[in-house]
Amino acid sequence: MNKNLSLNVGIYGSTGRVGRVLIENLQNDKEVNISCLYAIDEFKFTVPEDIKKTDSLETLFDLSDVVIDFTAPSGTEALLRYALTKPKPLIVGTTGLNSEQLALLKQAAQSMPILYSTNMSLGIAVLNKLVELASEKLRDFDIEIVEQHHRFKKDAPSGTALTLGEHAAKARELEFSKVRVSGRDGIIGQRDKDEIAVMSLRGGDIVGRHTVGFYNDGEFIELHHTATSRDTFAKGAIHAAKWIVNQPNKQYAISDCLGLQG
User: Do 21 and 32 lie in a common domain?
Assistant: First the structure.
């Protein structure tokens, strides 16, 4: 599929749920061209025959100006290791990366610009900023986070919920890993003032819903974000791809391309 455009976007993980909507959104975007689809599984949906498909990372990188990745942690790890041999701007939306994989991503970002986000939604990027502000200004309020996703989601809590918790903790100069609570059961005693709870619900076809509540005596505030379609992740990733190709080598977040940092 050749639109004779300057920005060629390759998709790594093109057979998945987000891969499908990425293909659809890229086809309708006049500023980009789908250069190549990397796939090791069969497509369960129709893809135009004139779009290049490959199971070779070399081909994917040769044909693409930027590569978007929505796979599994092992897939992202393989992508990063290859990218170290042939640096390329990357958009990584995979969740559930372990500490070693995150360290690998940080290492790779020294050789190429990489935008990594646990949620590519532009709305979530703004929510992260709002959570940080509320956490700082409402220091006496208890913080509770609830995330809801479809029955097929494999990791819990969601990467988005954990990122929201990290923003809340950062604003209070707390170490999130030390104040995070992932479940309550039995006689647990009263709530600690600094704890930040993150609870997960799974069921049906919920694309994604996150609620961050700030609770105090006599009042509370709840900030909600609901994704009604995976289009929101695709559109955010495409927006990021257009931005990342002009950035120096560094690790970025979705908030960077919206000018929300600082």
Answer: yes
Catalytic residue among 88, 149, 210, 235: 149
Write down the catalytic residue from 3, 53, 129, 153.
153
Q: Tokens representing 48? A: 């135009």
Q: In this predicted structure, what is the pLDDT of residue 203?
A: 97
The model's confidence at residue 162, banded by pLDDT at 50, 70 and 90, is: very high
Please measure the distance between the N-terminal and C-terminal CA atoms of the chain and give it in whole angstroms: 40
3: buried, middle or exposed (CB in 10 Å: 19+, 13-18, 0-12)?
middle
Amino acid at 37: L
* Mean pLDDT, range 192-197, rounded to an integer: 96
Asked whether residue 1 is domain-assigned, the answer is no
Q: Which domain holds residue 188?
A: 122-227
Whichever domain contains 62, its CATH number is 3.40.50.720
Do 201 and 237 have their domain in common?
no
What is the pTM for the complete model shown?
0.79
CA Rg value for the chain: 19
153 is catalytic: yes
Answer yes or no: 149 catalytic: yes
For residue 86, which amino acid is it? Answer: K
Instruction: Return the closest-CA partner of residue 181 out of 189, 6, 52.
Output: 189
The continuous run of DSSP H or E covering 124 comes out as: helix 122-137
The single-letter code of the amino acid at 229 is S
**Looking at the structure, do residues 150 and 240 belong to the same domain, yes or no?**
no
